[in-house]
Structures are given as structure tokens and as C-alpha cells.
Design a protein that fits this description.
Elements (H helix, E strand, L loop, with lengths): L3 H4 L3 H17 L7 H8 L3 H7 L3 H26 L4 H13 L5 H8 L4 H7 L9 H10 L10 H24 L4 H17 L8
Helix pairs in contact: 2-3, 2-7, 5-6, 5-9, 6-11, 10-11
Length: about 200
């Protein structure tokens, strides 16, 4: 989390620093990123960076958390659009994010160097107990009558499974250089399999 001095900056200076950090994390992954490049791009002394952030990880996760908030807004709007249909909302959500050009390089570097913390931060709305507030907001919009669930505990597990599928498909898009169409098709197939269920039975 940035220090209070960052939030006290004038809007334009704050945006300049954000854009400079975004440019560096879009150029290379977090572990290769250079604070020197960020401050050079922003036109500030190196010491000033530490007045605003603890380290480069602090700056990176601030950007990722901000992106996550925007993603949650998109997803909640889609849940409203589809009257709580979780799978319909997820399919369009994936299409929107995967075809977004603005954050493409940042996304590529993020997903090709995935850690548990990055995964959890990127999709907080799916993370249940770790991010209870975001999860409750999303959960309240899901039409649970469409899902074969016994209780809210099972919804936690379903969301964990879906998060894994979303993250895997984002990572596969960049790791295998898939076209948007290929990535969307793979994701759609997996969503349909989950929606249909995997276990065949003749029992009535």
C-alpha cells in the first residue's frame, strides 16, 4: 500500500508516477523491474520514490489492486446484465479482459510470472475468506438457484475452482501465444464442461 505522501500528491504528479510504474511493469516482469527506470521516466529523484512506496513490490501491487477493482466493477455489472447467471457473466468477462489492448503487456508479464499473491490480488472477488467484502458483493449478485449448491460453503469452493480456470486460461493465452479466438474458445469449452458436470450417471 502506498504511503500517505503518495495520496497527498497533486493529481497530475500522482498520475505521472503511476504511468511510469505501469510502463516499467509492462516492459518487464516484477522481478526484473527497476526503480531507476521508474523514477527516470517520472522525472523524480530516486529518494522520492521511497517517500511514496516501500519498494517496487509495493508499487506493483498497488497497480494490480487498482486493476482488480476495475475488473470487479466489470464483473458485477455483467452479473447484473445476466440476472445473476454466473457462467454467462464469466464468459463475457473473459472475452472483455482477454481482448483489452490497453493493459496487454502488463497482463502478459503478470500472468507469465504468476505467484499465489498475484493470483489472489488479481481476482480478489473470487477469493472468499481472504477478501470477504469483495466476495460478499459478488455473491449477493449470483442467482444461486441456477447452481447445484447445498450451502454458501460450497459456493466458496466453486468460486475457487472458477478462479483457477480463469487464471489458467489467461496464462495459457500468453504462454502459448494463442489468438484471442483460440483463448476464448478454450475457456468457453471448459465453462461448458463445468456447467454441464463431469460425472456421467444413469441414475434418476
Amino acid at each position: 500500500m502506498p504511503k500517505q505522501t503518495f495520496f497527498n500528491l497533486p493529481h497530475e504528479k500522482k498520475q505521472t508516477l503511476i504511468r511510469s510504474a505501469e510502463a516499467e511493469f509492462s516492459r518487464v516482469p516484477l522481478y526484473q523491474a527497476s526503480i531507476s527506470n521508474i523514477v527516470k521516466e517520472a522525472g523524480i529523484p530516486r529518494g522520492s520514490f521511497y517517500q511514496y512506496f516501500q519498494d517496487k513490490e509495493d508499487a506493483f501491487f498497488f497497480l494490480l489492486d487498482d486493476l482488480s477493482r476495475k475488473r470487479q466493477e466489470v464483473f458485477t455489472n455483467l452479473l447484473k446484465k445476466y440476472d445473476g447467471d454466473l457462467f454467462a457473466a464469466l464468459e463475457e468477462f473473459f472475452q472483455i479482459v482477454i481482448t483489452e489492448v490497453e493493459n496487454l503487456d502488463f497482463m502478459r508479464n503478470t500472468f507469465l510470472n504468476m505467484t499465489y499473491r498475484i493470483e489472489d490480488s488479481f481476482l480478489k472477488m473470487f477469493s472468499g475468506r481472504q477478501n470477504e467484502e469483495q466476495f460478499r458483493e459478488v455473491s449477493s449478485l449470483i442467482d444461486k438457484r441456477k447452481l447445484n449448491l447445498a450451502n454458501d460453503e460450497e459456493l466458496h469452493h466453486v468460486m475457487k475452482i472458477l478462479k483457477s480456470v480463469v487464471v489458467h486460461n489467461f496464462a495459457a493465452k500468453f504462454a502459448r501465444n494463442l489468438t484471442d479466438e483460440e483463448a476464448i474458445n478454450n475457456f468457453t469449452v471448459e465453462m461448458k464442461l463445468l456447467k454441464k458436470g463431469l460425472y456421467y450417471t444413469t441414475e434418476m
